[in-house]
Amino acid sequence: MTTSNHDDDRRDFLKKSVFGTAAAGMVIASTSHATAQTVADAAEPEVTNDVDVLVVGGGTAGHVAAIQAGRAGAKTLIVERNSQLGGTTTTGGVAFPGLFDAWGKQVIAGIGWELVKESVELDGGQLPNFARVPQRHWQNQVYTNQFLYAILAEEKCAQAGVDIAFYEFPQAVTKTDNGWQVDCVGFGTNRRVRCKQIIDCTGGAEVVGMLGLPRLKEEERQPGSFLFMLGKEHQPGRNQIHRLYVHGADSTNSRTATEANLTGRKSILAKVRKEKKRLMHLQPETGFRESYRIEGETLITVNDYTSGRIFDDAISYAFYPVDLHTKTGVRPKPLKPGKVPTIPLRALIPKASRNIIVAGRCVSSDRLANSGLRVQASCMGMGQAAGVAAALAANAGTTPLEVPISEIHTLLREHGQIVPDKA
Ligand SMILES: Cc1cc2nc3c(=O)[nH]c(=O)nc-3n(C[C@H](O)[C@H](O)[C@H](O)COP(=O)(O)OP(=O)(O)OC[C@H]3O[C@@H](n4cnc5c(N)ncnc54)[C@H](O)[C@@H]3O)c2cc1C
After folding, report:
1. Is 263 contained in some domain?
2. 284 vs 43, which has greater pLDDT?
């Protein structure tokens, strides 16, 4: 997809776009004091972007998908309704992604791993030894610094030529001859995006819902959790973080998310008063475990998951116990020795759709399979595969489902991902 035309278009785009101007005019302050940063003049309130790939949601799966699409030569834009990349990993504070390994070897690598590894190294932390099979699954989760992770993700987007629009979300999505017109809104900004492919990484498949494509949702969802810390100074890592279940938490819309946040914070305030400790740290919002999943071209069942089925169109491994949280807590059910589930491309494609693919916890799967598939390394693996499939589809003028799986595998391997092996 890297052609001279594309490069010219891109330079042109950068000259015209608000992002280009902003990047050129920005000076980074280098002290811990409040030194002024010079940001470019206020951008035009009406913005238009022509891109190959639009990623909606820059969370755990989304920023990986965007970096991958950018590295594959696709002109890529992320629209993220929050203020930073990383989603549940950063804004939700679940900064212990897993699991990149299974049964003594690494099974998920690529861009997600590159980011996790770099953020741990920059933070002076330690990576787990994947050659060792841990007694408890969470022992090989990787404790990362959520703040560094979010900044590194931005840096990698910039290096891959990916533009980012924070505080915005799609309001209307219309089919065009060769893709989509997506009208987004943010405070003070109206943005019209024309794109060939959409990658929906919103967690709850919100764009898929806007298109009226089928989605699944349980009446009783797993609780969300608010992450916070009482007493000691904040150090990233599992042991310092406390969690409080928010039962009924639902990320479906602003009203349900508001309710979850108010409920969670109220409970934390009560706890502070009761335990008479200092509130040292509080994430800005509830971490949501479950909302909508897509109904895809195929559905991963719990039997597919626990038997380690290797799908013909597998694009990534996944590894985690079946992990359903309920009102009474959670009892993870570990996978049997040697079993490593896989994720098929068709589970990322909304049924009977064209030019849209999803990645992340909304993957087409039954509830129990989803309780294991939703973890971060798996979401990152899906994100990278979706980035590859969308970039190749945009380049070929086709839809992700019609891209030969061998081409997806080849590009994934070239970009450092581990591809499931039938042998
Ligand atoms: C409390 C909790 C504990 C967990 N524990 C673990 C663990 O120990 N290990 C592990 O690996 N996983 C864990 N998980 C699971 C894992 O963190 C999530 O399932 C995963 O991060 C979801 O990734 P995602 O990309 O699908 O969604 P997210 O990371 O949530 O990203 C979705 C992004 O889309 C944005 N967005 C949503 N709607 C829109 C819109 N309309 N327009 C624009 N942007 C939008 C959001 O702001 C967000 O940035 C946990 C989850 C929770 C909630």
Report:
1. yes
2. 284
